[in-house]
Amino acid sequence: MTALEKNRSNTNSTLTDTYRHFSNLLDWNILLNCLMNLENSLQFLSEIDKLKDTYRQCLVMSGEREENTAEHSFSLAMAAMTLGSFSNEPIDLSKTIKMALCHDIVEVYAGDKFHYHKDEAENLEDDEAEALKKVLEPICDSDLAKEITQIWNEFEKGDTPESRFLRGIDRFLPMFHNYKTKGYSWIKHGVTKEQALEKNSHIELSSSEVWKFTKKMLDESKEKGWIN
Fold first, then answer.
1. Quick one: which H or E segment has residue 15?
2. Using the 8-state DSSP alphabet, how is residue 116 labeled?
3. CA angle 151, 153, 159 (to 5 degrees)
4. Mind listing the domains of the chain with CATH numbers?
5. Residue 69 to residue 109: CA distance in whole angstroms
6. Which of 27, 68, 135, 205 is least buried, going by the fewest C-beta atoms within 10 A?
7. The pTM is what?
8. Angle between helical axes of 161-180 and 93-102 (0-180°, round to 10)
9. Alpha-carbon distance 118 to 123, whole Å?
């Protein structure tokens, strides 16, 4: 081997070693980023687990205890699957289920507000918007955070078939729980039949069939003394 050939061989060897070194660094950086993304995702899961400790005004249907927000979100997702065929408008069921799971995510920090007292709550919209940012903070730069934010805002506005349907069912479920628990929170808060009809009239925009049942349910509850 000539001196020139030997020099070229050494140069190629050095370049190969350098390439391997930077390839290893690149692989490590990718792995590190993956681990950081996983850690952030798990932190987000820990955040939303707090919904299990956020209690609502109505009881579970067995009457044993108050329902928590995680249970309500699951029940609403199942109600969307079960009652979707009764929607006044065609809906994207997959999107509606996602919306159900995300619609009360802000209650991790904002807490549950009793439906009949929401008009009295100050700065509710601002508080809930801040709560959304806080709960999504671990995954704030992710596509998932953007999707959840978009879905949550869509539900709040209520101007799409999916959000109109789900907002109505979201109001129907607590009433159904009260019906099954002999008017527990209605009696506790002195809710009248007239108030219930007025505050929940948008159920009719969601599903005319569910609204018909709601009115019959309230009539029966009034007769039995479960609502004023």
1. helix 3-48
2. G
3. 95
4. 49-223 (1.10.3210.10)
5. 12
6. 27
7. 0.82
8. 60
9. 10
What torsion, rounded to 10 degrees, do the Cα atoms 167, 169, 175, 178 define? -120
Q: Which two tokens stand for residue 140?
A: 């704030």
Beta bridge partners of 66: 59
Please provide the average confidence, as pLDDT, over all residues in the chain.
88
Token representation of residue 3 = 């001196």
Give the DSSP per-residue string, 46-115: HHHGGGGG-EEEEEPTTSSSEEEHHHHHHHHHHHHHHHGGG-SS---HHHHHHHHHHTTTTHHHH----G
pLDDT in tens, 4-63: 455 555 545 555 555 455 455 556 555 555 556 889 999 999 999 999 999 999 999 999
